[in-house]
Amino acid sequence: SKLKEALTIARVWDDTQGWIGGSTVVVQLGDQVDRGDDELEVTALLRQVALQAKEAGGALHILLGNHEIMSAQGDIRYATPGAAARFHDWNQTCSEPDRASSMAEEHHCDLWEPLRCPDKDVHCQRQLMQMPAIHRSRFLALRAGGPIARNVWGKERRTMLVIGDTLFVHGGIDQAQIAGGCSVLDGMDRTVAAWMEGQHDAAKASEFWTRVTGRPVGPEAPAIPAEYSMPPIAGDQHGPFWNRVFAMPHDSQYGGSVGPDTCRRLDETLGALPVEGVRRMVVGHTVQQGGIVEDCRGAGWGGSSVVK
Question: Angle 43-230-42 (CA atoms, 0-180°, nearest 5)?
């Protein structure tokens, strides 16, 4: 897979030995889905590598990207037919009570739990009936509250991360989002994780029910759909998953280059971080056809490649 290729190039992975990076620290910048047929294999491999790295004194930190956010909303537009088919086979195999242990390992059944819409979530049930049958297992597994969204994205992923003097984030972050200090940064992680795990805001549920039905909340109210309970930071175009301010100019689709205004904005953002001494921001999200790029005297790095 492309993930193994990237880890091999980085000299931290060997197909025979596994993690060979010792105390090396690796950060994956998000978008582990919507990039081909191997989504399940990528999810399982990242979990395996992270465990081996930790045991060896190193680390693999994995961030959420905008495509994890989209999949948690139930958006299947970018899923390949091959990826959908693998999730379908995964569900078929792992739901068999008498499956062999070797088959369970091969099919990554440690990631599996029974797939269903939450009780009273009529919106989920309606979506399920309207989509091609081959997509249903993937939709339920990755949707907010589904087993992979809950157990992997909610519990094992980060929104952003500071290591030493470097901030890692999928899209970027602007000064406005970090004005509240450490509690805001920690709160972003907790809020997004809670949504991924299927924890819904009761006030939002009430508002949604009233807006749709025109009636106050009662015992018959349906569960709030995942997309309506998404925290604002997950959809903020200037937030950590969607921001392109610091990387867009290098994309051949847009042309141009980073100017002094962007560098000043980056300096102000890094200076406003509640962690002292952060000197650079490393982002993904926007594909850099020419490879990794550096801007603003080394303060901005764009690292998303066509390999992802």
Answer: 5
- Whole-number Å distance between alpha carbons of 69 and 153: 10
From the list 244, 239, 271, 272, the residue with the least C-alpha distance to 258 is 244
Q: pLDDT tens digits, the chain, 308 residues: what are they? A: 789 999 999 999 999 999 999 999 999 999 999 999 999 999 999 999 999 999 999 999 999 999 999 999 999 999 999 999 999 999 999 999 887 777 788 889 999 999 999 887 888 899 999 999 999 999 999 999 999 999 999 999 999 999 999 999 999 888 877 765 555 677 888 889 999 998 866 666 666 667 666 777 666 666 666 666 788 889 888 889 998 887 765 544 444 456 778 888 888 888 888 788 888 889 988 776 666 666 676 655 555 543 33
CB 222 within 8 A of CB 235: no
Residue 161 phi, psi dihedral angles, 5° rounding: -155, 135
Query: Exposed/middle/buried for 37, CB within 10 Å: 0-12, 13-18, 19+?
Result: middle
Burial 255-273 (b: 16+ CB within 10 A, else e): eeebeeebbebbbebbebb
